Amino acid sequence: MINLSSKISDLSRVGKVGAKLLKKLGLENIQDLLFYLPFRYDDFSLISKVADLKIGQTANIRGEIQLIQNKRSFKRKINITEALISDKTDSLKVIWFNQPFLTKNLKPGDLISLAGRVSESQGQLTMISPQYEKAYGNDLVHTQGLIPNYHLTEGLTQKQLRYFIKQIITLAPEVSEWLPSNIQKKLALIHSFQ
């Protein structure tokens, strides 16, 4: 059973490599991870319709993958994954660089949630390298709502760190309140979890 003093390596999908990377950030146990706070949040609380997107806008959309394929850029020698995403209002081109594995994870017909900046490519609205996740249900971590962004170290991604924190967030009520109640009242602060 995982508690605040458990080692980070006890979490699902951390392993020795992940634990070593988290240790570089000063994170060795579950309490360290619970107190590792984001430096900013992205607000993807509103889902936009593709037809309403504007160039330069940062947006969240949900749609169905109509087409997804890998290409090889001969000039820059990189893999390019292109997809066409449609909602009930219009379609949007999506491009990812050097992520050919996406065509194994994402298939035509999949419902997907995307969050990122809208740009233009060859006269078409496009999202380049947006955050993505399959959108079956409302339990989205990377593309919906207020999305935390953490300081990282090489080899560790935002998705991994959010996944690890999601596993332990339910332990927050176990943290003892250290601020005296008279100060909490005076400043009208929210009550602790307990």
Order of helices and strands: HHEEEEHEEEEHH
Number of helices: 5
Percentage of residues assigned to helices: 10-25%
Overall morphology: globular
- The CATH superfamily of the largest domain turns out to be Nucleic acid-binding proteins
Overall description:
The chain folds into two domains: 8-39 and 152-186, no CATH class; 43-134, Beta Barrel (OB fold (Dihydrolipoamide Acetyltransferase, E2P)). β2 (58-73) and β3 (78-86) form a beta hairpin. The protein is α+β, with helices and mostly antiparallel strands and 194 residues long. The mean pLDDT is 91. The protein has five helices and eight strands. The longest helix is centred in the C-terminal third of the chain and has 11 residues, at 158-168. The strands form two sheets. Strands 2-3-4-6-5 form a five-stranded mixed barrel. A two-stranded antiparallel sheet has the order 1-8. The chain is 19% helix and 32% strand. The radius of gyration is 20 Å and the shape is globular.
The gist of it:
The protein has five helices and eight strands. The protein is an alpha+beta fold and 194 residues long.
Give the topology.
Elements: H1 15-24, H2 30-34, E1 40-44, E2 58-73, E3 78-86, E4 91-97, H3 102-105, E5 111-121, E6 124-128, E7 131-134, E8 145-149, H4 158-168, H5 181-186
Parallel strand pairs: 4-6
Antiparallel strand pairs: 1-8, 2-3, 2-5, 3-4, 5-6, 5-7
